[in-house]
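Hey all, quick one. A colleague (J.T.) asked me to put the adenosine-5'-triphosphate job into the tracker so the inputs and the structure tokens live in one place instead of scattered across chat threads. No bug as far as I know, just bookkeeping. Sequence used:
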Amino acid sequence: MLTPHDTPEPATPHPADAPPGGDPLARERAHLAASRAALRAMREDVESLDLTDVTANWVNAAVLNAQIEERIKSLADLSHTPLFFGRLDYVREVAADEEGTAPDGPYRAERFYIGRRHVHDPAGDPMVIDWRAPVSQPFYQASRTNPLDVALRRRFGYTGGDITAYEDEDLTASGDGAEATSRLLQQEIERPRVGPMRDIVATIQPEQDEIVRSGLSGTVCVQGGPGTGKTAVGLHRVAYLLYAHRERLARTGTLVIGPNDSFLRYIEQVLPALGELTVHQATVDSLVAHVPVTGSDPAPTAIVKGDARMAEVLRRALRSHVGRPTESLVVVRGSRRWRVPADEITTLIEELLARDIRYGAAREALPQRIAHAVLIRMEQAGEAPDDRVQNAVARDRAVKALVKEVWPPVDPAKLVLRLLGDADFLRAHSEDLLTDEERAALLWPKPYRGVKSARWSAADAVLIDEARDLVERTPSLGHVVLDEAQDLSPMQYRAVGRRCSTGSATVLGDLAQGTTAWATPAWPEALHHLGKPDAHVEELTAGFRVPREVIAYASRLLPAIAPGLAEVRSVRESPGSLRLVRAAEGALLPGLVEACHAALTHEGSTGLIVPDPLVEAARAALAEAGLPALAPGEETRADARLTLVPASLAKGLEYDYVVLAEPAAVVEAEPTRGAGLRRLYVGLTRAVSGLTVVHEGELPEELG
Ligand SMILES: Nc1ncnc2c1ncn2[C@@H]1O[C@H](COP(=O)(O)OP(=O)(O)OP(=O)(O)O)[C@@H](O)[C@H]1O
């Protein structure tokens, strides 16, 4: 049973010490004011820390100071982000320690306020509990069928920084079993979008919460249609993991990988708003940027370069550098000469190759193994050499020279340069792996002379990254979130996988939105390349962005682009609007300008999505009409609400109103019809409140 309560006007919060009276809203405001004061006191405590006597060492002092700065920042009270958004009244006292994590902590209460961060009063008792604490979880999961010991769930509505409404759910009330829909939740979902992506911490849904709180040790893969909250869930999961495993992840690090820089700019404020300031963001391209990328590949070439078989080609090519000695090794120590025959050294080399350790690690191990063979001879001759002698022998000039010859250092970029430029070398290491046609696709028309002069493509950089890892292990992070994963090639999955080889990952994607020529056909295959074949695949089906009518229209493409996938179930109540406008011949641009003008009469942001070849013409037309447009990822503001989005950059973004230009041209701008239709599906699913499709030519037949 939901009981909404509103006040017509925001009132001034009660000071913390004022008698709150009998009005529940006033009492909640008093708690908010008191919590704010407590947070201020927590910040002042940290600010007043005097470090002068704590450490004499300036390095330690600098580290401590940086940590304190961080802590002060994380204690900031952002006036527009409510300190708490919910309240739970349990049926009995439950325990929460200071951080709210220990089930049997010292603090016990029946009532908890749930917010973005933990706030305690001067006595150390919690005033607001972090949403990630176990005691907060029922806020997201409790239902009338399974109340989880909760009697009452209260959600707060805010205007600016003030509580202006609340809504109660009595979870003890017996009813018909149907769960009520929260009006505050609906309002939150339907709120117009301006500015960067925001957190959803107050309204995480049960199916999302389960993914957010899944443990650190497992990798989770989330398949979900447009607007089902995949990105939001991934970001909240990092925040949750940082809370639950703070020390471990502080050591090992966390990373969010997105498709391009504008997308990363769009999402970059979510984690700081949740108090997490240390999560890095990257694109796959930036992770593997070992060489400047100035070239590009035709699709057939990029497909072969991105194929997992290339990993084996590289491995073989690298190991082909390992030779066998033809003469015995002679080490001179003082007046004695020690001889190790060539076949014995060959055996040592074979043993190292069989162990399949990194090329560089094996190269470092070989001198020690040779020295060991020399030491055995010394002992047999009655000497008693110790470790120092072994180390000295390992560094002996003759040993070093031999190792350099039989296990030479290899530069990963040069290895790839040779594979792509030397047909014989490529054939020798791919004979049974690739076809002649595939080899022809790989080879540069004209070999480059060196690493610096080569025009490397994005796929080449991934090959170099693989080669680097074969030489020296890539350090692994504790957790990686991979968004828009469906677009990665197998070799790119491997590049991401080695960055979480000893950690875990959250893989987010939608098979229907794959727009690369090598897009993921099925998740198990992708997870195999990532090195996480045991990951759970979860599905999100409720859509929080796209209005029903619009998603139904876009979903007409599904049979053609992803036959197995079901249409997203929109949870938006406002119907939204879908308009199809046929422009007169030659009048596409004026039609777009008019549609943008109309969209801008509404509150919120407008995105004009155009086929890439049309971007400049559209920009000029908008400028001429006095409508300056932002670039994707640039923050929309109240006075700058229109963004011009090339269709190729629309992925992951959203706007209140979308004007989409010439669907057929969006499709045609891609190398294959499948990729083109999926690109169109992405464009058609960016709108929160309304979509206007303006076309001059025929619509693609798949839109029926
Ligand atoms: N539980 C929720 N409460 C309120 N809003 C939500 C919730 N879940 C998602 N949203 C909102 O829905 C919109 C879409 O979310 P998000 O971008 O994470 O979806 P997505 O699945 O990554 O979409 P796409 O596949 O199109 O990139 C965002 O504005 C997000 O804030």
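Adding what we noticed when we looked at it: The chain has a mean pLDDT of 89. The chain has four domains: 2-180, 206-288+476-543, 329-384+392-406, 548-703.
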